[in-house]
Amino acid sequence: MQKPIIYLQRPFREEFIAKIKEIAPDYQVNTELSDEELANVEITVGWKKEKELALLNHSNLKWVQAVSAGVDYLPLSEFEKHDILLSNGSGIHAVSISEHIIGTLLAYYRGLNQSTKNQMAKKWDQAGIHYDQLSGKNLLVVGTGHIGKQLSASLESLGVNVYGINTTGRPVDGFIETYSIKNLSKIVEGMDIVVGILPGTEATYHIFNSDIFNHMKASAMFVNVGRGDTVHTKELATALKDQQLAFAALDVFEEEPLPVDSQLWDLENLLITPHISGMTVDFQLKFMNIFLKNLKNYVEDGELVENQVRLKRGY
Q: Omega of the bond prior to 257 within 30 degrees of 0, cis?
């Protein structure tokens, strides 16, 4: 009888493949898959759309380990229907994304964005540079998970007052105060900076919309590194054009790559980065720290101990 298969849908270093085999000696580890082998796939690392129907309909799939933190691109209802466990890569990108956010904040508050443009034009212009002090600003993190907590810790030494929003308003270490997401429009009124780090779900779709932007200070900055569809793109563009808020930095978008005819490209008070905030040094090591811990527990008792996704909620 053929061994059940752990299917790695992306390449990993041989040292990690060896550790997988050591933890799960009764499994076969595959990086390629024939049609005949589909029925024996029990665990898959990563998810490819072109393999979706085959894995759901022709295998004994029991556990999917997503490489990303967000899982809105996965067939969650099908996983629930087939009793398939799902875990994600939440936490891997926390330092990288936090540093990206801080970079965008300093680039705006210290005039680095405008200085870069002036350099390209060989223009020396001190008087036209926007500058402000980040220390003392009130910053709201919408999404107090791994990334939000890392961001809060990183901002502490810069003197930023960090508040949080989560589903219920439950207290979270590292935040001065936390609030329920139902109070978002009221809380943003007192914030200088609002940072979105939300997953993509039905509940978060277009949650950052004209109502939220209208309640923000005209001097406020908005940053999004969560899912692109948490922001109503057209309404954000209007808010920026009408100077309802001063500046925004987006790393994620409703449509990626961002189309060349998007009105966002022409907004002077918007920083666009091409979904790079999660780029992480030694990603494989950080990912395997999660997967191998889960694999050991799964082999022993069929359960996961790290980052299990609640399928109904989508995170």
A: yes
In this structure, what CATH number is given to the domain that contains residue 85?
A: 3.40.50.720
* C-alpha to C-alpha distances, 173 to 124, 152, 191, 196, 240, nearest whole angstrom: 44, 9, 19, 18, 33
Residues 6 or more apart whose CB falls under 8 angstroms from that of 125 comprise 118
Check: CB of residue 244 under 8 Å from CB of residue 274. no
21: Cα within 13 Å, side-chain hemisphere: 10
Q: Name residues whose C-beta falls within 8 Å of residue 127's C-beta, 6 or more positions apart in sequence.
A: none
Burial of residue 119 (number of CB atoms within 10 Å: 0-12, 13-18, 19+): exposed
Residue numbers of the chain with a pLDDT score lower than 50:
none
List phi, psi (to 5°) of 190: -100, 10
Short-list 175, 182, 93, CA closest to 140: 175
Same domain as 216, residue 158: yes
198 falls within a domain: yes
Whether residue 31 lies inside any domain: the answer is: yes
**Spatial CB neighbours of 111, under 8 Å, sequence gap ≥ 6:** 129, 130, 131
Domain extent, residue 86, equals 5-91+282-301
Q: Are the CB atoms for 199 and 227 separated by under 8 Å?
A: yes
Global confidence as pTM: 0.93
Cα dihedral 126/130/131/137 (nearest 10): 180
Taking only the tens place, the pLDDT of each residue in 145-172 is: 999 999 999 999 999 999 999 999 999 9
In whole angstroms, give the CA distance from residue 179 to residue 160: 18
The 10 Å Cβ neighbour count of residue 57 is 11
